[in-house]
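Hello forum,

I keep getting stuck at the same step: I have a sequence, I want structure tokens, and every attempt I make locally crashes halfway through. Rather than fight my setup again tonight, could one of you with a working pipeline run this one for me? It's a single chain of 226 residues.
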Amino acid sequence: MTNDVENQEPFQLPEHLTAVLPLAEAVLALSERLDVLIEEDDAKHENDEADAAEPEGPPAEIVALMAEVSEAALKLAAALDEDDDALLSLDEWSQERELLPRIVELPLGLVSVGEFDRALAVARAFAFVAPESFDGDIAIILAEAGKREESLAQLAANAEEFPDSFVTVLKAGAAYEALGDGPAAEASYRKASTLAEEEDEKEEALNQLAGFLEDAGRGDEVEKLL
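Reply #2:
Ran it on my machine without issues. Output:
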């Protein structure tokens, strides 16, 4: 098996995509630098006894680098002009560096450092390739940014377009939770668990629900759930 993997031909990127290759490489390189910074910051906090104090915001260098990643991603999106096949080819080219997964995680990563406008821009720019995921993110971002009515409108649109999508329903739970609508969040997480087709999806939905119940002071229900 190992020899088969080692002997595989490297993926040949279509010639017409060579022009956008530097843009994809920029996203990857910046993301990999960001990984290092985040790992160093996590290690620092693990070893810092003073961390028991009130947590500070993310380091400025991490926020700045995330902004750079978002700008690089937006340049790539503009060059691709909603060509999902091209992005999937670039993702296959990137192999274990995982271009597409990095882009998928970027909007909520930006939310975690308070970069709501950049998060929205990235989610909207890449919605062409994975609308269920990115449209779900848009609802979450708007909720986290305090834009309640816009978030509810996005949630309604998502539910109408993807009524039986595990991803859509799971992300709706996160959006409702950010909006402070506990019953809707719980209902979404429970529905997502019934829509899950894979074991890891089921586990993800139950973990989200368990976290919600724990935060709501309903820890006794978590044991029964899990």
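The CA atoms of residues 77 and 125 lie 6 Å apart. If your local run keeps crashing, start a new thread with the error log.
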